Amino acid sequence: MSSLARPLPHDAARLHVTGQARYVDDIPTPAGTLHLAFGLSEVAHGVLRGIDLSEVRNCPGVIDVLTAADLPFDNDVSPSAHDEPLLATDRVHYVGQPVFLVIADSHLTARRAARKGRIAIDPLPAILTVDQAMEANSRFEEGPRVYEKGDAKAAIADAMHRLTGTIEVGGQEHFYLEGQAAMALPQDGGDMVIHSSTQHPTEIQHKVAEAVGLPMHAVRVEMRRMGGGFGGKESQGNALAVACAIAARHTGRACKMRYDRDDDMVITGKRHDIRIDYDVGFDDAGRVAGVNFVHKLRCGWAMDLSLPVADRAMLHADNAYHLPTCRIESHRLKTNTQSATAFRGFGGPQGMVGIERVMDHIAHHLGLDPLAVRQVNYYSEAGGPSAPPPPPESISAKMKTEAVQTTPYFMEVEDFELHAITAQLADQAGYAARRAAVAAWNADNAVVKRGVALTPVKFGISFTLTHLNQAGALVHVYSDGSIQVNHGGTEMGQGLFQKMAQVADASFGCGIERIKVTATDTSKVPNTSATAASSGSDLNGMAVRAACEVIKARMAEGVAAYFGCDARDIRFVGGQVSDGAGREISFDEAAQRCYEARISLSSTGYYKTPKVAWDRIAGRGRPFYYFAYGAAMSEVAVDTLTGEYRILRSDIIHDVGASLNPAIDVGQIEGGFVQGAGWLTSEELVWNGDGRLRTHAPSTYKIPACGDRPDVFNVELWSEGRNREDTIYRSKAVGEPPFMLGISALMALSDAVAACGTGYPDLQAPATPERVLAAVNKVRRG
Amino acid sequence: MTKITMTVNGKSYSGEVEGRTLLVNFLRETLSLTGTHVGCDTSQCGACTVHVNGQNVKSCTMFAIEADGADVTTVEGIAAPDGTLSTVQQAFQDYHGLQCGFCTPGMIMTATKLLENNPKPTEHEVREYLEGNICRCTGYHNIVKAIMAASGQEVTPVAAAE
Ligand code: FES
Ligand code: FES
After folding, report:
1. Is pLDDT of A395 > 50?
2. Which of A10, A673, A697 lies closest to B139 in CB terms?
3. Does B44 contact ligand 1 (Cβ within 6 A)?
4. Are B24 and B66 contained in the same domain?
């Protein structure tokens, strides 16, 4: 039996529990390694007048200090618009922006010295808030992006009921437990080897090459593992790697940099916060006729990945609901704050909170069960999970146009699973009975109110920048039968490496112990995409399988020649290679014999996602290969005197297709849910009026602790799960979708608060105890 | 610079340190014991947890000089000399108590200490004891499960193979 679909532990579990697993900061450094730190802007916006570095230079242990004027080539670390200088030039754009770079003999010396720089800045008015940015028309792109399906305005005006409202949703700090880190090792001829804690080695290679004036072939980036990424290491590692490379070129010595946690939180981008205005028309059953959304996202000072993030927010404004008419207007606002960046869900969660809020508001307005309102708006199920294979092309195409509903961006929803998932979850978790129990509790208890909510997730899988949907792999079988697998994906804890080993094992049937997945390396697999958009297993799994199948076919030929049989009869099972008729040799022997027969045992593999094509300006087409689904039901208890609350119980059913590794997938769902619930409840970012982030350590920024997770927590994989598209062994991506299951916690809080009176809670996020208390008071006022 | 001596994982080490050198830096940089991680630098995340004279200590919160003469255990000293994992380590592996693994050394140290003090904790006690250890990946579910399993109490297996 192959290891595929078995709940094997994380590939490096043993190394982790014994402290042997190496992260960038753990790699032994060459003698004489230097350490770096940035001197940061203390002003949110201003003209840079001069930098007095004399005190910095005088610190014992400081080797040199560099400013923008000292940079030999390109001064840019942007992943998109070339608008993000490594070191500030004539202006500063946020509190925390790197202005100069200290090179010293130790990490602490560099950090201490960096504090001694005197940066003269003439302050300019800073744009910090959504309102300030709207007023100043400070934005990326020429104006708002608009996606439109039908005439939403008319539909809303004609509808039986109409509601308007606003929800503000805060940003989120990644708090990857391993902070950003990089190291550059100079090689002969000026070449660079870079170790970087990054989700995107190819981009590091690209930015480093530009910064040291060399072609990409002169830079090799290696990445074995990250201590968490969550999107925060998609572009935010560029600055450290580039700084290390420049300093290494400058000094000829190995250079290393890691951000102290406070610096990390002050310098790097976070999840985009958003204000969503909604205007919705609906009937007596709560069925939406039309909805108008206005998204206002604070993108920070540089473009980074904000455009695709904001696009994805628009692409998830429908979540699981068929919106017959819809208009989404998206403002990508430029502000003097950290440049907001990728974070698990990549804008999807923000878009989804908008429509979930609308559903909640409609149900409250009509006095209906919120789940009933959600279900009546679900997309129709075009064929169930056990649907027979589609009829021949011509007929199916015809039937489709009638039966299949489309998203606000005109993509057909062909794989909708949520009717069945929701029904099963509601049944298993006892939705109806528990709503009744909660109502009874609330009738009897004046102070502690309970709430319960069941919310769905439909999340689109693929990079919306279509050309990123490609991946490569490199597989070697050695003559002793051991196998090395390399692919473009990066390991950040999500278990990608173990899944890839399982995929390789499924091809060779050799036993997973023969397979080693090695560090991501730009010299093994070039031109890779970031490990992001939940795409790691989908893309790299197909590439790994492609490479394995090439070698396997060659080995089959070789063994067939040895056996004197037909290559088509050769089987690779249980560590043996057989002719299916009784003759067999071990996989190891097969490898040795193939080597001696001069058969190549190495191959690349390549994959590109089919079917995806769309126009992001018009908002039309098929950005996604398929959708991943899930549903969560959460119950909370709120102390209405203080606003404090607990999540009592959460039940989840999530669709991962046919799981490659159920234990890893369940872990992703649990972790994603808790992180999503944290975003909407306790994790609050606070900037003061000067644009200074006040929550820059875990003392003030509250990520969920062990006691914050639900007391009862039941997570199940959707038993009928099987991807209708031809993905790697019919699995589905799992990295991001479960994050949005956390929305159930916010809606349960809204439900509990609603029990305090007649008004609508209008709960804003994150729903900190302060905000919950404000909502309680609002509801009491009616 | 001051000369200090301490026993780490059963071996005696000496080294020169500045007064302000933190224990975690002494362990990681001077002794190259990089299993002890720095997650927050400010005594809040627990990734740097070690045992000093039998007590749980966040090693970013203690000066190396304060550990002069002490008996220190790090995550590298938990498995048996022949490499056999401790019950806690084995349970973290078997019950998927880790994802990125960065919090894991601190979790292992804290859990080991908990079970020394309280061999059969309730789930509530486990959670309370772990309040000083942050994990950003797992949602803690499997961490708690691993510790319950390590204490010999019954837990449901994680997504058993079909
Ligand atoms: S690094 Fe010591 S507690 Fe976080
Ligand atoms: S496993 Fe990543 S922080 Fe715990």
Report:
1. no
2. A673
3. yes
4. yes
- Same domain assignment for residues B31 and B67: yes
Reported as a single tens digit per residue, the pLDDT across A106-119 is 999 999 999 999 99
Residue B23 lies in a domain: yes
Hey, which of B28, B48, B74, B134 would you mutate to test ligand 1's pocket, going by the most ligand atoms within 8 Å of its Cβ? B48
Q: Where among B25, B44, B77 does a domain terminate? A: B77
Residue B156 pLDDT exceeds 90:
no
CB proximity B48 to A under 8 Å: no
Looking at the structure, do residues B105 and B61 belong to the same domain, yes or no? no
Checking phi first, is residue A696 left (phi over 0); if not, alpha (psi -120 to 50) or beta?
A: alpha
Tell how many helices (H) and how many strands (E) occur in chain B. Answer: 5, 5
Q: What is the pTM of this model?
A: 0.96
**Quick one: DSSP state of residue B27?**
I
Q: Chains A and B: how many Cβ contacts under 8 Å? A: 190
Instruction: Establish if B82 belongs to a structural domain.
Output: no
Contact A656, A732 (CB under 8 A): yes
* Whether B138 and A667 lie within 8 Å, measured CB to CB: yes
Q: Do A225 and B100 touch (CB under 8 A)?
A: yes
Number of domains in chain B: 2
Q: What local confidence, expressed as pLDDT, does residue A382 receive?
A: 66
Output Rg (C-alpha) for chain B, integer angstroms. 16
pLDDT of residue B154: 87
Same structural domain, B101 and B142: yes
What interhelical angle do A662-680 and A348-366 show, nearest 10?
70
Q: Is A11 on the interface with B (CB under 8 A)?
A: no
Closest CB to A177: pick one of B78, B134, B162.
B134
Tokens 């050799």: give the residue.
A510
The B residues from 84 to 143 touching A (CB cutoff 8 Å) are 85, 89-90, 92-94, 96, 98-105, 108, 126-128, 130-131, 133-143
Radius of gyration of chain A (CA): 27
Whether residue B8 is found in the same domain as residue B33: yes
Q: Which of B28, B45, B104 sits opposite A17 (nearest CB)?
A: B104
Question: Are residue B109 and residue B142 in the same domain, yes or no?
Answer: yes
Average pLDDT of chain A is 96
Alpha-carbon distance values, A779 to A362, A366, A442, A443 (Å): 16, 16, 14, 16
What separation in angstroms does the CA of A449 have from each of A359, A710, A743, A782? 21, 17, 19, 17
Q: B160 touching A, CB under 8 A?
A: yes
Using the Cβ of B34 and the Cβ atoms of chain A, whether some distance falls under 8 Å is answered with yes
Range of the domain at B73: 2-77
CA distance to A108, A468, A469, per residue, from A536 (Å): 36, 12, 10
Asked if residue B70 and residue B17 are part of one domain, the reply reads: yes
Residue B142 counted as domain residue? yes
pLDDT the model gives residue A403: 66
Specify whether the CB–CB gap between A463 and A531 falls below 8 A.
no
Q: What is the CATH number of the domain that holds B55?
A: 3.10.20.30
Q: Is B132 in the pocket of ligand 1 (CB under 6 A)?
A: no
Which ligand gives the minimal distance to the CA of B49? 1
Question: Residue A390: pLDDT above 50?
Answer: no
Residue B130 lies inside a defined structural domain of this protein = yes
Interface contact A717-B159, CB threshold 8 A? yes
Give every strand in the sheet of A571-573, ordered side by side. A571-573, A576-578, A584-586
Show the tokens assigned to A695.
């929550």
Same domain, B29 and B91: no
Give the pLDDT score at A746.
98
Closest CA to A488 of A202, A192, A194, A209: A202
Domain final residue pick, B21, B56, B77: B77
CB of residue B57 inside a 6 A radius of ligand 1: no
* Residue A531 Cα to ligand 1 middle (Å): 28
At B125, which CATH number? 1.10.150.120
Q: Cβ of B136 and A673 within 8 Å?
A: no
